[in-house]
Every structure is written in structure tokens, then in C-alpha cells.
Amino acid sequence: MLLVLGRRLANIIPTMLAVVALVFLLFSVLPGSFISGMNEDGRSTIDPAVMERMRKEMGLDDPLIERFAKYVAATATGDLGTSFRTREPVTKMLAGRIWPSLKLVLAAMTFAILVGVTLGFLAALKPGSLIDTAAMVGAISGLSLSQFWFGLMLMYLFALKLQWLPSFGYGDGGLRNLILPAIALGVGPMALLARTTRAAVLDVLNADFVRTARSKGMSERRVVEWHVLRNALVLVITIVGLQFGSLMGQAVVVEKLFAWPGVGSLMVDSVFQRDMPTVQGCILMIVLFFLVINTLVDLAYVVIDPRIRYR
Amino acid sequence: MRSNENVHEGDGLMRKLAWLAVAAIAVIGAGTANAQETPRKGGTLRMTAPYAASFGSLDPHTTPRAQDDIVNKAIHRTLYNWDTANSKLVLELAKSVSTSADGMTHTFRLRDDAYFHNGRKMTADDLIYSYTRLMDGSKGYPGARFARIIKGAVDVEKGQAKEISGLKKIDDFTLEITVTDLVDPGFYFFDGSTAILPKEEVEKGNFAANPVGLGPFKFKEHIPGSRVVAERFDKFYKPGKPYLDKVEVLIMAEAAARDVAFRNKEVDTSILGPAQYVAYRADPVLSKSILEVAEMFTRSMRFNIDSIKPFQDKRVRQAINYAIDSNLIINRLVKDKAYRATSWLPPSSASFDNTVKPYPYDPEKARKLLAEAGYPNGFEFEWTTSQNESWGLPIVEAVIPMLARVGIKAKPKLVEVTVLTEIAMKGDNQALIASSQTGPDSLAVLRCFYSKTPRTACNYTGFKNAEFDKLLDDAAQEGDMAKRAELLKKANNLLFEEAPVWFFNYNKAVLAFQPWVHGLQPNPTEITHQYLEDVWVDARSPAK
């Protein structure tokens, strides 16, 4: 187990380095800069002398290699730089955004697992039944839905029409404000989990060891609980892990729509304003989250299925 | 020394012209304070901040963004304010100002009743500190462009001096400001980026996280990416104000989500885009609470005169103005959320001429002018545009067939809105559609067409005209503000005749508000910037 953990952690470093390089290069070739972006929409006019000075102060005129070397060296020490926009350390800005993001992702995943796995399981136990058809229609719809449109529909129904929940915002950080964005974010993974669970359970239900268990006289409930669930879980956990890891990145649209103060909304705002240090910090955070979750999933495999061994 | 009246002798003219602004300002419903109603004390106003998914900074010196100024207007104060009712700049942190005979030294008698939120009284030292901070050359504060007008400010910026020689403290409440040009200082010291800050609070560090100002509301809470909350400041210098107990500025960058929240009565104000404007106007209830104003933003296609030969001929530029059915585009595409432009300066400018008629849609005349200019078969040009729905690609796509009808072939080049200014500054375009800030300082605005103004400093068209230059030179030398306004009016009209741009429209900013909100101002400098001490909510407000 420790060996698996060590290997996975060792893989994180080169992956992060590659991401840092890629993001840095991408933003270096993008047209526009934070300084010129301050004049967006004619809302302000920055004096050219001021622009020049700010470019210098922010190091935007330094050679690319020099900037990259400085950035990597600083990142290695945990210094993600200073935001062009707020002039605050990026680490401080991220620290304020991680908890709302985590809360949203956890809530979305909880919704996805509870609803998706249950639906998939029920559908697989009675293939071809009404519940199976309904669950799969729901799953396909969920996969096809635009988060933006679905989020708006949720707002319209639960806030405007039924008046059950607030339509936007963080509020006091409580559950009432969390429900709608979590469902909007979780509907995609929920649909995927429902389909995957159904397929995995159907697969296991037809396996030899299940037939053997039944022929031994084991009750159907026991067969499902002891054999089917546990074996189907390996595939389900893979999907959960992948979805969970990428959900923080996917949260951009939902966070912006619901005015949720997470890493995603910070990133999208920073992209539009070419606040490179903040964008890089956000992407690093999202990638790190993805890698950590993947590592945890790898470890979970070993726990759930002792046959799995990493070499 | 001249009296305050003398300094603002343009006010007489401005008063005469005030109806122009009033005509441009259509206030539907009862958004502005009704004099017959008694403002109610207490309550919460829930404003929306629509321009981004976060605030840049709550330190007003570090940000020029409209989004940040929504909050900063509540917490901070500047030497001057924009008086929407009278369409002019007025003293805010001073009771009076007198000006020397040469018009270069302004002596301000400051308020002796203005307190910072930490309880300390504001003095002349605070203005000196704030303007000197702006000129810290190592920081590149956006407000330096305004403070640079003070004599000696540039020396501080360059690190050649520690104090601005043009700032002289006479006593705690008297400050003398000597400027380098014959200007109305109001234009330079009303922008939010020149707010007066308390030195001791700034020097504690982390000021943006704990802003302390002179405004009617004191900072309470900032949840980045979500909201800023400010509470009533009881020692605010205007007696009985503010009325509200609390102001919440809620970040809502998505128009559709803002619409749901507004209809659900979760927010009290919402800026409207063209699509929502149509829906709100058609709604019998929502249409009663809409505030509209011609903002100081002019949308235009700027011809890069140096880029291709046809644009160097005035007749070609005029022909384009005749060839485009601007009214049709404003009506169909912009959904009437704009006022037709009849000059570069907006209606709220004292130099706006309301007798000028817009270029009519006349393709025949356009063809004739093109033929006279030597382009009977038209010509081709590349048109740089962003995706903006009101002054971007949708507009360009509608114009292309109109231009084709007179033989002009326009090829659109799509770029991200963030890079428009950079492209304009480099001159890396043949024509570019954009929205330009065109107020309130008409002289500074028109200088963007002055031949000696470099492209990097805003002469994006490369326009050169000796007659126009002379009018601007004369205006800059004219100390009598009424006469200056007249000269600028002539320059503005000349510009309209010379047509270095396609004059498209002035932005019609539209703010929807809930029926229980009173005292909102149709501020033409930016409608989301409200002087919140005048705003109040009646008992119907559901906010606690």
C-alpha cells in the first residue's frame, strides 16, 4: 500500500511540471494582456505611461524563459505569485475559494452517487422494466443537458415558481444556497454513474461466481449484497474518481451562473482579465485536486479488491 | 482670486443646456426620489455588480474598473462628485473653491465635518497623502493620470521628489492645488481612483481587505466572488444620511441568472441587456421600474485613417455614414437600448449641439460621394470587431450588406474584447468597432482626435485637422468655461462633419429596480455608480 502511495505521489511532480509549462506557454502566446484589458469596453482609459510602468512592474516585458524560470522556482517554494488584478498573493486568494469549491464538488458528487448509483442498480436488477427505461432515459438526458440551461431551469422552478430555495449566491454558506448549484453540477456525473452502474451490475450478475453463489442456495439479497455490489463497485469507483477529480474544473459554468465564490469563477474572471498568476494558480489547484483524487481512487482499488496489485 | 461661481462660470451655460441631458434621460417609474415622499430610515439595499465574477480590489487607488467602483462609491469619497440632477461636477469634500487670476491655483476650503470610518477627522494632509500615493511611480496606480495635472506630481512619479510641489497645506482645512494646465479640477478629482484615504489605515497593510473611507457606508464583509456588505456610517457628513442601514453588493455576472433573481425579488437592482430590456419594457409591472440614461459612451467604427488610402478622404468616411441604416440596426439588433449618435460627445456634455441631425440613411448619396472621391466601384477593408452583442460582430454582420450595396466590401476580423485596445494602440487594424468613454471632460475626450496626440494615448484614428487642432488649442487656453464649451461645441461639430468614425450610438444604460427602492440616480458616467446616501427603501422591501 505504501509503495503504491509513494509511486503515485512521485508521478504527481512531473505531471504538475508539465501542466505549469503548458499553461505558462499558452498564456504567453494568447493576444492581449492584463494591462490592455483594463481598458475593456471603454470603461476606463489608462495612461500609456502608466501602462508601460505596470508592464514593467508585473514583469510582462521580461523574456519568456526568464519569466518561466522565475515562476517555476517560486512555485516550487509554494509562492504562486501576486495577482495582477487584486495585488494580493494568489495563494491567499485561492485559500478563500477552495472551501466553497470543495463544498460544491462534494455536494454535487454526493447527489450524483446517491441518485446515479441507486438508479443504475435498480435498473440493472430489473432490465427492460419501466424503472430501467425511465432511469436510462433520465441518464441520457442528464448527459446531454447543458449545465447552464439546466441550472437556469432549476432556478426558474425552485426559486421563481416554487420559492423553495434562493436562486443564487453563497448566502451564509449553508445548505439552502448549495442545493441548486450542486444538482446542476452533479447531474452529468449522476447520469454517467447511472449508466455505468447498470452496465457493471448487469455484467457481474451474469458472471460465473454469481451463478455459483445462487446454485449454492444463497439468497438473492445476499448474492447482490456480497457478490454483485462489491464487484460492480470497482468500475463505479473508477468513474466516481474520474468525475470527482474533474468536477472542480467543470464547476466553472455553474459557479458563474449561481454566483458561487469558488475556484472556477475566480479562474474564468482571471482568464478574461489576463490575470496570469491567478489563472496559473487556479489551474494548478484544479490539476492537483484531480491528481490527489486519482491517487486516492487507486488506493481504494487495493482496499476493495485485494486481487489488484500495482507493480 | 475668483469666487466659486467664477470658477464654474460654465455652470450658467450648463444650466441652460441641462435640458439636453434631461431630454436624454428618460426616467420611467418612480426610481428617482420623489420629493413628496419622506425617505424612510433603515432597511437594506441589495445591488448587483454585473461586470465580472469578482471584485478586483477594494483599494480604490489600485483599480480603474467600473465593477469595483460600485462598492467604492459606498465606502469612499473623492474631492468632487457628479451631480446627476444638474448634470455637472460639484464639490464633495470641500465647501468652496476659489481660483487665482491665472486660473492655475485652486484653493479648496475643505469640509471640517468629514470623518473616516476609524473615527478620525479628514484634513488637508489626507488629500496630500492620497494624491502623493497615486504618484508612486513604482506602483503604476491608475489614478496617476488624473493627479498628474498637479504641478510637481510628475517629479514624484519619476522619483525626483518626495512631495508634490503643487499641493500646499494652508491649514488643516484649506488646501491649495496648483495645476499645470488651465482645467476644471473637477474633471480630475471626481474619478473613484482618486479617493481620499487615511494614511494610517493604508500603511497598516492589507488595505483592500479592510478598506476605511469617508463614504456613507463602512465596510463590513467581503466574500470574494460573492458579495461585499457595508453598514451605515453614523458620522457621515451629510445630516440625516444615509437612510439605509446596510448595503449588499452582490456579484452577478450572468444576465439570465440576474433576471431570475430580480424577478424573484432577491435583488433590488439589475442592469439590463438588450434582450432583457425588450422583455422588461413589455411587462406591465417591470416596465414601471426602469431607469434609463444616455451614458457617456459612444459606440463607433473608428477608421484607421493611415491604414488605407480611401479612409484619408473625408467623402469616403461620410459615404460610410450615409450608407449604414443606423436607426434600423439600433431598433432591430440593439433593441432600442441605445440613442443614435449625432456627434462624438454625448448629450450630457455641455458642448453637445442638439441642433445637429444624424447622418440620414442615403445609399444614393453614399454612392455619389464615393464616385466623387474616385471610388465608384467601392473598395475593400478589414473590420476588426469583438463578439460584443451591442457593438461587436452582430452589428458588423448587419452593416456588411449595407456597405456592399454601395460597393464597399468589409471583411470582419474577430478578436477578443480584451485585445481591442491593444490593437487600436498599435494601429494594427483598418477599422475597428468599439465603445469609447466620451465624458465628462469634453476637452480631454476631443483630444483623442488632436493631431499631436499619439495613437498610444488614444488618437486611434490618426485624425489630423488643422482647424480642429486650433479649436482645441483655443479651448485649452480659454479660462471662461462657457466660452470653452462653445469652442468645444464647434470642434465637436467639425468632427461630425469630418467623420473619422461611423457615428453609431450612445449607450443607453438601463437599470431595473424594485418598486420599493427610491432615490436612484440616472448617472450618465456609469449607471451602476450610485451615491447611496440618497437611496432609501420603503416598508415593502423584503430584505432584512
Instruction: Report the span from N to C terminus of chain A.
Output: 11 Å
Q: What is the number of E strands of chain A? A: 0
Global morphology of chain B: globular
CATH topology of the largest domain in chain B: Dipeptide-binding Protein, domain 3
Radius of gyration of chain B: 24 Å
Termini gap of chain B: 51 Å
The radius of gyration over CA of chain A amounts to 24 Å
Task: Give me the secondary-structure category of chain A.
Answer: mainly alpha
Characterization of the model:
The complex is a heterodimer of chains A (311) and B (544). Chain A is mainly α. Chain A has a domain at 91-304: Orthogonal Bundle (MetI-like fold). Chain A has helices spanning 2-29, 34-37, 48-57, 64-76, 90-125, 130-144, 147-161, 175-205, 208-215, 220-257, 263-272, 276-304. The longest helix of chain A is centred in the last third of the chain and has 38 residues, at 220-257. Chain A is globular, with a radius of gyration of 24 Å. The mean pLDDT of chain A is 84. By secondary structure, chain B is of the alpha+beta class. Chain B has three domains: 31-54 and 216-289 and 514-544, Periplasmic binding protein-like II (D-Maltodextrin-Binding Protein, domain 2, 3-Layer(aba) Sandwich); 77-214, Dipeptide-binding Protein, domain 1 (Alpha-Beta Complex), CATH 3.90.76.10; 297-506, Dipeptide-binding Protein, Domain 3 (Dipeptide-binding Protein, domain 3), CATH 3.10.105.10. Chain B contains 17 helices and 20 strands. In chain B, the strands form five sheets. In chain B, strands 1, 12, 13, 14, 15, 16, 17 and 18 form an eight-stranded mixed beta sheet that branches. In chain B, strand 3 (80-83) and strand 4 form a beta hairpin. In chain B, helix 16 (466-477) runs antiparallel to helix 17 (481-498). The model of chain B is unreliable at 1-36 (pLDDT under 50). The chains are: A mainly alpha (311), B alpha+beta (544). The interface between A and B is large, with 56 and 59 residues.
